[in-house]
C-alpha cells in the first residue's frame, strides 16, 4: 500500500533536485555571447563563399533605386531621374550621390527615347509626377545569370525578370 501523505523531507529533496538540474542565467548568457562571437567571425567568410550574392544585391539595389526615384517624383510633384553610367558602373538618384555596381557585372541598357546617350555610355531614366516614366530596360549579367529591370512607360512600375523570362 502506498502512503497517502508525502513527508516534508521527501518534498524538500525533490525541490532541491529540480533547482539544481537547470542552467543559471549567467551560464546561458555566456553561451549566447560565445555563439554571437562565433557568428560574427564566420559571417564575413560566409559572404565570400556565395559569389552570386553580390549579383543578387546589385539587381535588387538598382531596382530599389529606380522605385525610390519614382516615389521622389510623385511626392515632390517634379520630374526626377536616375542616371546610370555604364563605363564607371555607378548610378545616381535623388538623395544619393553615387551607388556602385560591383565589378564583374555586365550592364546593357535600352533607355527611353530622350534618356539614352550611347556616346558616353550614360543613360537617364526619367520619372514624372504622375508616376509614369520614359520607360526602358536595364540588363545585368554575370556568368550565365541574366536579369532585366523593365520600367513600364505608362505606370512607371519596375519589374525584375530573372534569366530574361518573357524577353
Structure description:
This protein has 167 residues and is α+β, with helices and mostly antiparallel strands. The protein has a domain of 115 residues: minor pseudopilin epsh domain (minor pseudopilin epsh fold, 3-Layer(bab) Sandwich), CATH 3.55.40.10. It has 3 helices and 9 strands. Strands 3-2-1-6-5 form a 5-stranded antiparallel sheet, with helices on one face. A 4-stranded antiparallel sheet has the order 4-7-8-9, with helices on one face. A hairpin with a 2-residue loop joins strand 2 and strand 3. The mean pLDDT is 82.
Question: What tags apply to this protein structure?
Answer:
167 residues; alpha+beta; minor pseudopilin epsh fold; 5-stranded antiparallel beta sheet; 4-stranded antiparallel beta sheet; 9 strands; 38% helix; elongated
Topology:
Blueprint: H1 8-20, H2 25-49, H3 52-76, E1 80-85, E2 90-93, E3 96-100, E4 106-111, E5 116-117, E6 122-127, E7 136-142, E8 145-151, E9 158-162
* Strand line-up in the sheet with most strands: 3-2-1-6-5
CATH superfamily of the domain at 51-165: minor pseudopilin epsh domain
Approximately how much helix is present in the residues?
25-40%
The largest pleated sheet is described as: 5 strands, antiparallel
Protein name: General secretion pathway protein GspH
Keywords: Membrane, Transmembrane, Transmembrane helix
Transmembrane segments: 21-43
Organism: Iodidimonas nitroreducens
Question: Quick gist of this model?
Answer:
By secondary structure, the protein is of the alpha+beta class. 38% of the residues lie in helices and 29% in strands.
Amino acid at each position: 500500500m502506498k502512503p497517502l501523505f508525502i513527508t516534508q523531507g521527501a518534498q524538500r529533496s525533490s525541490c532541491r533536485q529540480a533547482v539544481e538540474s537547470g542552467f543559471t542565467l549567467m551560464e546561458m548568457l555566456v553561451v549566447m555571447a560565445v555563439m554571437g562571437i562565433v557568428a560574427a567571425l564566420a559571417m564575413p567568410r560566409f559572404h565570400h563563399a556565395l559569389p552570386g550574392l553580390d549579383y543578387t544585391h546589385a539587381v535588387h539595389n538598382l531596382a530599389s533605386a529606380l522605385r525610390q526615384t519614382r516615389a521622389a517624383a510623385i511626392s515632390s510633384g517634379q520630374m526626377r531621374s536616375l542616371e546610370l553610367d555604364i563605363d564607371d558602373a555607378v548610378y545616381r538618384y535623388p538623395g544619393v550621390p553615387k551607388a556602385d555596381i560591383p565589378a564583374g557585372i555586365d550592364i546593357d541598357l535600352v533607355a527611353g527615347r530622350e534618356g539614352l546617350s550611347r556616346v558616353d555610355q550614360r543613360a537617364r531614366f526619367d520619372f514624372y509626377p504622375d508616376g509614369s516614366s520614359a520607360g526602358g530596360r536595364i540588363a545585368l549579367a554575370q556568368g550565365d545569370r541574366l536579369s532585366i529591370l523593365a520600367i513600364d512607360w505608362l505606370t512607371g512600375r519596375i519589374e525584375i525578370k530573372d534569366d530574361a523570362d518573357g524577353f
